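Example 3.2
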Amino acid sequence: MAKVKWGIISSAQIAIDQVIPAIKSSHNGEVYAISSGSGKEKDVAKQFSIPNTYDDHEKLLDDPEIDAVYIPLPNSLHKEWCVKAARKGKHILCEKPIALSENQLFDIIQACEENHVYFMEAYMYRFHSQHKLVKEMLEEGKIGDILSIHSVFHFTIDQPKKDIRMQAELGGGVTYDIGGYSVNVINYLLDSSPSTVYATALYEDVDTKITAVLEYENQITATIDSSFYGPMLHAYKIIGTKGVIEVPYAFRPDLNDDDGVIIIRNQTEEILHVKEKQYVNEVEHFAEVIQGKAVLDYTPSEVHRTLKTLEAIQQSAIKKRQVIL
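Structure, written as tokens:
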């Protein structure tokens, strides 16, 4: 199969800064078109030499040449445009969270199944292999039995009044934004969902700080801690009966020259470096799935598991009580 032809739905900054450059750097994809409702599509197309522009997302979906779309619209619009894209026969890479409720996710899954297209939620960090190495170490008993996992992700929103992540009507809030990374990685490393959740939060128009304690099987405890207030910090630590594993550049190794670092402390200290471009890996993997050369490494069942956990965290924070999943 020839290169996958991508359509970019929106001129969002994440598309400009990360995903469009990643597709252009990939070996199996090309940016074929971009659409925008803000009138910026021609400027972005000129910047990246994108051959086709549309001033309406529907027009882009009607282009028969496009194989897949990347959707970085506000969270509240993800379900609508994922379903529309599926019905037009387009494969879908959608920014996280792909849905804001289980019902929304089920609608997306149904539309994709009925129209025989793939979808993937764009948790790009999953495509940096530092995490697979950590999981392998845990399975090998490198630090003994797991006792607890602690994950943090913080950064400061500089202009909150202009940021869609601070707008409730657009599906904003820290839990579904960066809190989702911690939930996703913990569920991935344990290959499980928590049995109970207890969370507390700070609120402005949306939740701006979230702290949660999650209980898993085998008496494993996990914590997540995220806010829109602190310095850029994205890391997790796994404590076992025989040692500790730390990943200090967990979710944005691109801010560390693409260098993922794994620190293992048991009898001695060992430091591993894994240098990869996670956004390029992400789009190349999804293109390989579309081409029939690979199976999805991040599956719809994992998307559901993360979303269900996030919903429980929000419910716990609002009701100020423990939630049983």
